[in-house]
Amino acid sequence: MMCATDLRVDCFPRVAFPAIIQPMLCFRAYSPPPVLNACVQRRRRISLVVQASRSVEDDYHATIKALNSRDRRVPRKSLGQHYLVNSSINERLSIVAGVEEGDLVLEIGPGTGSLTNVLINSGATVIAIEKDRHMAKIVEDRFGSTEKLMVLVEDITRCHVGSHVRSFLGKWNPGKVTKCAKVVSNIPFNISTDVVKLLLPMGDLFSDVVLLLQDETALRLVELQLRSPEYRPINLFVSFYSDAEYMFKVGRENFFPKPKASILHCSSTEC
């Protein structure tokens, strides 16, 4: 159940953050004048939208079954795990990012693979970074030996994500990397700010970033009133690298366990 909320903030690039029972934001990479190219990086767009996968049903029961298959009865709160149990939300996320055949998509925290399934069905090749070895195994078992998926058991906040993505892009365009990748993720809520800080400066690498965030996080990121009591350094960071747009809310009943979240969308003009 989504609420039609559309809030735009005109900063440099456009960014959109949708929310689960909360808002959605969108960031678009900023293209500075030639004179500024030496000191200012271009901004990227980040968005969050979801759509359902039609080939495999990903609902509450399917999620619980997948967790039980690895003796994981409940998500690990310490890792900020929460799983989408409505595949239509995943489809909409894919649409927001404009995922199509031939795209390279980075997914952070794939969980049971419901969003991964939608991305692969859309024709994308997915690099999934999962810190939990048990969940990584669930995703690997689900998709078998498909060449459309690479699962990396790493901590997104500590791994060299740029190197991984550039390596893949380099294989597709030997000698000259001209195509940008995209980020589409229902990220662990406990690392939301870290992920935003990590991805936004990579405007030359990611053309679109779609993230599902907690409502309060999305609202905080788009709060650009300098003199407001809620204004924080992260607002300056976000406004420097992109334009934030609060897109829409996604009902908490679409998750297990039920959280309060929002969607963020950022795009870059460098790609």
From TrEMBL:
UniProt keyword annotations, A-Z: Methyltransferase, RNA-binding, rRNA processing, S-adenosyl-L-methionine, Transferase
Source species taxonomy: Eukaryota, Viridiplantae, Streptophyta, Embryophyta, Tracheophyta
PANTHER family: DIMETHYLADENOSINE TRANSFERASE, RIBOSOMAL RNA SMALL SUBUNIT METHYLTRANSFERASE, CHLOROPLASTIC
Record-given protein name: rRNA adenine N(6)-methyltransferase
Top-level EC class: transferase
UniProt signal peptide: none
Binding residues for S-adenosyl-L-methionine: H82, L84, G109, E130, D155, N186
Residues of the Ribosomal RNA adenine methylase transferase N-terminal domain: 89-270
One Pfam family hit: RrnaAD
Keyword rRNA processing attached: yes
Protein EC: 2.1.1.-
Gene Ontology molecular function, alphabetical: RNA binding; rRNA (adenine-N6,N6-)-dimethyltransferase activity
Source organism of this protein record: Vanilla planifolia (Vanilla)
Family from the record: Belongs to the class I-like SAM-binding methyltransferase superfamily. rRNA adenine N(6)-methyltransferase family.
Lineage top rank: taxon: Eukaryota
